[in-house]
Write a structure and sequence with these properties.
The complex is a heterodimer of chains A (about 60) and B (about 160). Chain A has about 60 residues and is mostly beta strands. Helices cover about 10% and strands about 25% of the residues of chain A. The radius of gyration of chain A is 13 Å and the shape is globular. The N and C termini of chain A lie far apart (about 30 Å). The two termini of chain B are about 30 Å apart. In chain B, the strands form three sheets. Chain B has a three-stranded antiparallel beta sheet with strand order 1-2-3, covered by helices on one side. In chain B, strands 4-5-8 form a three-stranded antiparallel beta sheet, with no helix packed on it. Helices cover about 15% and strands about 20% of the residues of chain B. The chains are: A mainly beta (about 60), B alpha+beta (about 160). Strand 3 of chain A pairs parallel with strand 4 of chain B.
Chain lengths: ~60, ~160
């Protein structure tokens, strides 16, 4: 993936936030987190792998 | 102790406190209450633009409490250290421009017990392909409870979201 490409955020209702393209990610402690060029961030608040999605939204019935 | 960039604004009943260092440009304040929070005006906060109740309602939505309020009767004494020069104040828009000029790639920051902050040149879509309007800076809900999904509206503070 070219680094010039715009970062793309894809919101799936009831699911995670897909992020692709060139980006940097900092955790809540301010430190850089190494990721793949595509990642899925938790939107439901229930993941056990925050900030990433672990599929927990299905169990809690997240529908937003 | 106080930051020289901090400001405060009062309508006689309540006082709104503004801490630019905490602003993450969620833009909730001026999207929802431009009559009070207008970055193009000096001062950028007009406490007579809306009712006290409305100011409280929108101020409470700030995801980082960069703006927060107190009843004047609950404020003890006059804080003499606060800067009252409103001609040189920072506001969400000037802060945004300053940050953008230094920016290269999209930066995503996870806010502790708060939203996903995004700054840079990016697109936001629903998985259906429908485009969502976004600015150069936004914040996505991470607690699952925002009423402005997929964006943050400050509800994580009300629900006590903890990302441990």
């Amino acid at each position: 993936m070219e680094t010039k490409e715009k970062t793309k955020f894809t919101v799936k209702i009831g699911s995670a936030l897909e992020v692709s393209g060139a980006f940097s990610l900092r955790g809540k402690d301010g430190k850089i987190i190494q990721t793949e060029e595509k990642m899925y961030l938790c939107r439901c608040g229930a993941s056990n792998k925050k900030p990433f999605c672990d599929g927990e939204h299905r169990k809690i019935g997240f529908n937003q | 102790m106080d930051n020289p960039n901090d400001r405060q604004y009062s309508n006689g009943e309540i006082t709104v406190f503004w801490k630019p260092a905490k602003c993450i440009h969620a833009t909730t304040c001026f999207r929802e209450l431009l009559e009070v929070y207008n970055p193009r005006q000096r001062p950028w906060v007009n406490m007579h633009g809306a009712s006290t109740e409305k100011i409280i309602e929108v101020t409470d939505k700030c995801p980082t409490a960069a703006i927060y309020w107190k009843y004047n009767k609950d404020i003890e004494g006059a804080p003499d250290s606060i800067n009252t020069d409103y001609s040189e104040e920072a506001n969400p828009e000037t802060l945004l421009n300053t940050k953008q000029s230094k920016q290269v790639a999209t930066r995503i920051s996870i806010m502790k017990n708060g939203p996903i902050l995004v700054e840079g040149d990016f697109l936001v879509n629903y998985s259906t392909g429908e485009e969502i309007k976004a600015t150069k800076m936004t914040s996505f809900c991470r607690c699952g409870h925002s009423h402005a999904q997929p964006f943050c509206d400050g509800t994580h503070r009300k629900v006590g979201f903890v990302d441990e």
